[in-house]
## 1
Amino acid sequence: RNPTNTQGAIFQQPTSMRLNSNNLLSAMIVFLTFYVIMIHLYTSSFPTEPPKPPVYKKERLTFDDKFLSDIPPEMKLLVRQALRDVSDPETDKEVLYVLHKKRVRSIEDLKKLKGNDWNLLGLPDSFTSRLKDRLEGRIYDPIVDRPFVLPEHVEGKTQIQGFDHDHDIEVSTKKPTEDKRPQEVNKSFENPYEQDMQGPLGLEKMKRLLDEATLTHPKALKWVYSPEGKYMSTPYQPTIVADEPAIPQALPFELPPQSVKDETDRVYNILKPVRPKLAEMWKKCYPNTLSTTTTILDDNTTYIITGDIDLMWLRDSSAQVHQYINLHQDPHIQRIIEGLIRRQSYFITRNPYGSSFRLTLRPEDDLGDFHVSKARNMYCSMHNYELDSLCYHMTLSYEWWKASGRTDIFSKEWLRTIWIILNLITVEQNHDTSPYVYIELPNGGRGKRVAPTGMSWTGFRPSDDQTELGYLIPSNIHAVVALEGIAEIARTIYKSSTLEAAATKLRDEIDKGIHEHGVINHSTHGKIYAYEVDGLGNSNLMDDANVPSLLSVPYFNFHSQHDPLGEIAQNTRKFVWSKDNRYYFEGSQAKGIGSIHTGSGTVWHMSIIMRGLTTDDPAEVEEAVATILRTDANTGFVHESFNPSNPSSFSRTWFAWANSLFSELILMHLDILKNPPSST
């Protein structure tokens, strides 16, 4: 159907035709009729929307995967990144197949393309534009504001997991640069909040920072701070899934990296001749986090789940990588831990009151009424506010910096997250002014009444259970330590008097509140720290196995001017490891501290490990290790809780946090454990 040809035929009339008025009128009617019909047929042939390029077709391309062996891994990574940028629904393989058919099979081939060559690929303009940007280094990660770089291995070849496992990447064999201490004095760090954060901290400043963070995506909603009769738990940011950025994708990455394998073998070879079972447990537990729970993402972040629960806790993920900090010279470890810190920062800006997070919704996460009632959204899987979660982010950042001397994590986004945390902790010093409401808490979701003490309120313990009284002493002790670290970063890295003053002020107020309201004179043990208080004269004397705990006070290197000799901490340690602590239990195979999380009578391996981590007494170390060896239920792993008289009855077969903490115990006391166990 060609309207031009049809109209031309109408005008080609025989010369013998008589052109009287009737014939002329008839001819005009015929012409107009055909014209209307042709125009209708022509325009109706137009599609209602522009045709989609080949890679967007609903029908999947069919091909043999063998062609992938011709594609270098770095080319696959580049395509993966570009697809991530444009949220392309097609797969990597389809795009690589299209490029392969055009004989574009490497980054070198891409660099040879000029001008119209890109159009001839037959790929969407949006994708080719992003691909060129990636190729020329113009794309920056939204979280860290700099290009993503796949780290080199220290030596040899690295087996890249992903498309095809038979392809090795040649990598640099140069040795890592030496640790640079003190910090690079000439390097400047962006600090846009110096003026805005002066003066009292509080809710309004936290709102501004959160709104700024959510504006990184144009369709993101601003934070909702009040229930307005609609939400049962607040603050809550509803999720419109279709408007959210594309889900970051996993990168091909060797896990665990060679440095972890080498450290595993080193310690194993020390332990094997003298403590064979301990050596085998070490071999399974030390790499467990990186072998089973870690995903390296293409937005330069790292996602680490807790184990058999496929969610990421701020607390757990921080503790799970702590035993790898001493391997800080390995670029792979740098990428893992620094990526984790960036991912934590991102999640905190999505819900600073959240404790656990997810990359995407699982089938059971339908965001229906039940989930909305608990203030869950696409990112936040648990809205239980736990002060220690924010503290773990601060202490991981500080300890990584102190050990490695690296400053790559100190971006504008990290700094904004820290200011959000400081404002939130300040808000919760007077919980009556807080926007936080949670459906599980009493008193209309606000928790039991408290009075201001200088400490910061928290709704939940590190066990994810409700606090009985609002001021949780172990978490406030953790906050004192974390804030001290932030003050040092402010002074050394950012040269920020505003941040240093804010962190120091909070630290001093909380420390003073702990010692004015959280110290109890026990009839047997003398002055000890309570587990919880409310500022109204009520106290809860106990300890829970989950960290931070009262038992873990020395683990966090807590020192206070109000207890210069550490006598309160020493008395508290004796109290928690005694029957005066109602969560201390003994059985025929073990004794230790349990948790309300798993009910009465069970002991947590974490408490036994923590006792060993907070002592220099070889006898206590030996007792802790011997207890763990006889209570692992022959699994080679430590667990959450177990029956102290029947260790084969336990909870959680896959609990990476506990495995990591056990590994720390071995590393800390290797000088003791490298010898045969004492016979006594």
## 2
Amino acid sequence: MAAVNERQVVAVIGVNELIYFELDTAGQVVEIEKRELEHQVVAVGIAPVPGGRQRARFLAVADSENKMRIYSLQPTDCLQSLSMLVLPSRVVSLRILEMASLGGTALYVNMGTTNGVFFRATLDKVTGQMTDNRARFLGSRPVKLFNVTVNGSEGILALSSRSWLCYNFQNRFRMMPLSYVPLEFASSFHSEQCPEGIVSIAGDSLRIFTTEQLGDMFNQTQIPLRYTPRKMTIHPSTQNLILIEADNDTYPYAEKQKLIEMFRKADGEDPIRVEPTDGGEEEDAMPESVFGVPRPGSGKWASCLRILDAPRGKTLDLLELDNNEMAVSICMCAFQNKQGELYLCVGTVKDLVFEPRRMCTEGYVHVYRLYENGVTKFSLVHKTPVQDIPGALCEYNGRLLVGVGPILRIYDLGKKKLLRKCESKKFPNHIVSIWMSEDKIIVGDMQQSYHFVKYNRPDNVLYVFADDCIPRWITSGSLLDPTTIAAGDKFGNVFVLRLPDKVNQQLEEDPTGGTIQWNTKDIAGAPYKLDMLINFYVGETITKVVKTTITPGGNDVILYCTIFGTIGAFLPFSSREDIDFFTNLEMHLRTEFKPLCGREHLSFRSYYAPCRNVVDGDLCEQYPNITSDQQKKIADALERNPGEVLKKLE
């Protein structure tokens, strides 16, 4: 076991004996000092030689007692202990690295332990004391550390059950998982073709690779589809994705193939037979993404349904819709009168146009079985015509809720078509989403935000008891809890609405809703209004809002996507102290870090409605980019030092 840098070597002889060697002026390696320690040495690491110096000053040694000590390498006190850090588990790998910090550089001791936790402590360049110890769980295997070069500076590759790259980016320390197979050993590799490569061992193979797209927070895998994906759902038992795809001004696949063959015959070419790929598409010598496709004009639709095995990227079945139909909504439904058998329900529309208004000749609700003779495929049960666009579908207590234009209906499964059981015509424009929350139904209207609906089974009546006081052009939303909604609109706002507690309590005391139902005949809108808890202007049209967890075992976050490809997240604060800290930091940065165009930050974030109960993390992350004097000024106002502020941000 040994640790080396440009001019120094520390070797471990036997179990606990350290021998220190140094390169003299003649280029010879000479022994400087020897010391025997009390406990078994399990890992050693030596600091890099600073610029303009002959030797590094510090040596890190970890022993079998879960202690890590810093020793001096100065001639006056060589191999004398300077500081100690006690860790919860045994260290298996040590690296001392110099990285940028607060406008200068600092030494960091990086430690990998047997239980998969990575520790990082700041090492004082003068006294050798360790401060600001931080920990992060990387995987189930012991963490091995290796020095690598990233963007022209030193970094660390941490290998556990997953590989992590530690480096500085925009004056901030970052740890990013590699989208690669698990590695066992690695080292930095340099050549003309690969200036910043990494050579590694994975299983019984030797691999050389480079790191790309370091600034990306998410890894992605592309699966080509036939048309633009519109909506999708997940089969609860097989976890397969079921997608609906549609494009306007596009020929259906069969018609397009006939046109291509006709063009080839007209040019005197022989028809070329191409084999389909695993995705169900045929490889063409002239790909559409490069050469384009024939365009029939607006109003001509092409649409299909697809069952996709996402982990393998394989299409299990694909069903093309004909007769100028377009799929607009999808859901899984277990009908009660069929002993809970699971069906796929798809809402389609025929001859859809958007001018002078959104309208169609007819809508349909298709019901499919997804298995036939043990094979995963679409099997049509029946097709039910409706008078308007079936914009949203949802299961409700063994029945199917359908939003047909501005009408909300409840259907049951019949032998030849769906059977209408109940409907409500009290919605203003067009229903685009339906959710079920305990005994309540949440309906999203295209222009008038969300409505809370109750179904009175004895009277077979649907009535609206609460809605939003602000008209919103909603695009997507998600339930946070039975009475709370997070959603986004087409103007770039993300907001959270909640049903007041007193209204929810009144519904529990009066489950039939008689008081609300019969005493509000002359009221415009619903008798109760939703409370707006959060509002934040993103600046881009929101396409999707969902409640999820980013890391296994982590807290729930609100994840949103925009039409320009942005993926953002709203993270909940866990303590009042964090709320006060980041609120004050945001307030100071609004003053000290002015936008380039000179616009007031608070005015921008409150473009359509006042910004409420949200701290702008993008603004807070600009703290490392301001000058050192500004950092110190803000840190003093927060009664902290700049290092503590940066630790909070990380």
## 3
Amino acid sequence: MAAVNVLSVSLYGPQTTKFFSPFSFQITIECLQQLADDLEWRLVYVGSAESDEYDQVLDSILVGPVSVGTSKFILEAPGPDPARIPLGDALGVTAVLLMGLYQNKEFIRIGYFVNNELDPPGEYHGQDIFNHIRREVLTDKPRVTRFQIDDWNASDNTNSIPMEMSNMGSEDMQTTERVYGFPVESAGIDFIEVLTDADLCKQIFRQLDLHQLGSCRRVCRSWRSFIAAGINFGEIDLSDIEWNETHDMNDAHETEMEQSLLQFALQQSSPELTWLDLSHAKPLTDAFLASWLNKCGSHLEHLDLGWCSKLTPECVDQIVKNCEKIESLRITFIDGGKSIFSDVQLVDKILQKYPNLSELQLDGMIDIRLEKMAEIFKDREISVGFPCGNISENGIGKFLEKCPNVKYLGLELCTDISANFIQHLRSQYPRTNIKSSHFATDFCIWMSESNNVTFVFPEIKDWKEPIPKEKFFEFAKFLPAEVKTDAEGHLSVEGDADRTVEIFQSAGFDEIMDREDGDFIENSADEGK
């Protein structure tokens, strides 16, 4: 029978505070027998789910002498030391642990989830991130473990033994293992131990995406160990990750987090991986890709490396070396955004290795390789894209003559191909979805920039291509209104003016003026248009 019962624990102060604010808890206990020594109470902040070495004892106090009966006291501890927290664990859900000890033996442990979020959201670097964190202690479902102490007044300091306990007080406390992150709704039941079938457990985890799986590592040690051994995803898609768009990989915090994400994705990839989308993965290097393909390349069918700017042409050799079953391949704007496939030898390596592709996108293509490609893909249904290609109208015309069953043809930023020719191709090959850079429907947004109008292509979200002002009016006719310049250089709008003004406002034009004869839009940075 326990000599001390904890009747209630409540947060003493605001639930949501700044990261550095102190923790305060009001604790009510019931002592059932006279104790020879004081009770010790510790508050521990879990700095990382990866290792106990990042745990911080925020404070430790002695309470006593404790009389028989009910007692109430407040434990206040300073906020955690950010220098002892890995930057990759600064945000998200962690835990704070309240421990009760007697004669160095723990008799109760209460875990509260703590959610750390940026307020306001933004990009912060290094330790400065902690100055912008809002901390929230989630008090609705504390997790409690009681430990059995056989003799409360024994002189030895042997460890106490964990035991189950019932719900407790008005806060609905529940028993579980030590908490590292998100709550376990099963209240202490570990399905890994219950099922015992590792393959079945992996199938359950594979229902999650990588973000969710990463969170599961924080639940308890058994989950973290199981996930660390690898869940073996058959498909990995990182295309929706918001990578560091500044290309400034000198930022330690960003670098650590992004490289950790890539390493975790590799760890969770099955050797029989069939789908790998790493498009826009800014930190991906040739060496890291080689590691991935060495492990998973033999069964890979789909590989997307678009906009992986740190890759170099050497990645083509790694692909050809490790991947035998590729059916869909995109390699565009790597090596700092260059068009590397003006090198015909690189194109030949891919065409010779993978003659049965169903989808291929390479940038910087030239006419002579289009001819070879047409011979290989003749009469097949295939999707191809040649953004920023140095290809002529004659070259693409001959390609489609030999490959009339092409399903998709991407010609974005092919400057030697005119709008009239695109219209001709679309009428001649109506079954082919042709993308270009010539019409309003080809663009997502545009914004003013010095003496140019910058267009952003929806299919190539990172690309911003400056277009001369005089060419802008070729595009303007596709707006929901007629756009003209008046004698003073203002743009006048006739038609659906409200919608057009909206477009120009979102495009960064500074001054909007209403006149009786229509809406006029002026960009003060671009005089004399």
## 4
Amino acid sequence: LEPLSGAGLIGLKNLGNTCYLASVMQVMFSIHEFARRYNNDEVALQVRSMSQDVTADGIFQLCKLGNGLLTDRYAIVDPQNALEHPVPNVEWVEPRSFKHVIGSGHPEFSSAGQQDAAEFFQYFLDWLERQERSNIIVQTLKPLADIFAFTTQRRLQCHQSNKVSYSKSLHNVLTIPIPVELADNASEVDRASKKPRMEGDQEEAEVLPKVSIESCLQRFFAPSELSDFTSPATGIKGKATISQRLVTFPKYLPIVLSRYVLGEDWTPKKILAEVPFPDVIDLSSFQVAEGLQEGEQELEDAAPKQEAPAAPSPDEAIVAQVAAMGFSENAAKRAAIAVSNAGSEQAMEWLFGHLEDADINDPPVPPAAGSAAGGSKPTASADGMAMLSAMGFDGSKAEFALLKFSNNVEQAADWLFSAGDAGIEAAIAEAKAAEQKGNSSGDVELKGQADFDGTYELFALVSHLGRNTSSGHYVCHIKKDGRWVIFNDRKVALSSSPPKDVAYMAFYKARQHRPEQA
């Protein structure tokens, strides 16, 4: 490999399992909008003059990191052309202050352990949005995370009435499955798995399934059927079909392959398969117009609203036991009601997951009339809470997942493992924000561009080397001036063959607007 150095070709020192951070941040600073805002001396100077402590200021630390990566301050390089004249000695940046600031208060990203790059990417975008919103120097600018934002639309069709309902949601990553059963070389993989192994046989190269990105996208956007759906129009159980499509496109599209799944032994496992990311991808066939289409009828709740039952009474014995642990009586009552008086242990588990709730010490609020079918708010099952707690998930996350999947423990656990902490926290935050604003899913603000033509060009890859989800190593490849460059912590070099078929994350840039919009 030919080593490189120069502005935009500076490595990041590994501080101990920080390769996930290094890979993501190299990709971020390769994006024009990001580099323009945070490799900016004027912004850095203004933030420095306004900040009481620049060592803890996220925006200042971003500017500092950008200056290190995007200038030749730390490079030994021929100033004429870094790509054409590589040099043997390369300097690097040590992102210790940035790691400390962005990881502060987060149980995983503040630790020295290996973390998931996709989780960190989503956490970084959430963190960046909070930093920009609270910083007087950049808070008037458009949130930079919006360059990744796009809107999807979920369509549900009731088979009994043929009516449909729509709901929208915001995303910053397109996470797609790997349908191994649709591998192009499925028969070859099957033969290799059944081939008998004799003692002394020479080790053969493993035959990995080869799945096209088209198969992954088709599986993700394929309609699914609900067989036990209670129609709001008729009140009778029957079937319904759910499908999902894109309403808008982002300027920059991160695609993450679901390489990590929950195994039969309830532990995360990595799917070893080759999924080649193409240089150009076309998503135009997966876009639809927003809302009801011509000839469709909206599925509305025709059932009469029912009066809410009286507020459930907390078990006095449970309240007494929880209060004896030092919690307020109101907090103990809320906990008992939340777990349907299942027991003091379950109430304590729920309480530990809700200690930061602003209303935790307020008197329990009776359910609003007609707030749900039967008038009561759904609750997480006590058994499900106990099982997810035994897997290591705290109360609030376990409760959210169980409610999200109607107390299906297996689906809830699978989602918790695949979404990761950053994804879970983002989903909880989004749900709380919608609840506080009284939003229905149909009121989601559209983000992204509807006038992009849906074609994207590949410009970066993040790859995970290794078979274990909690170990291994991350590297990234970025296309610069038409040539691929590998960033392996502090090492930067030309790459003749980027690993497009085994990458974990791929970053695409929108190619152009629709011709009529140009």
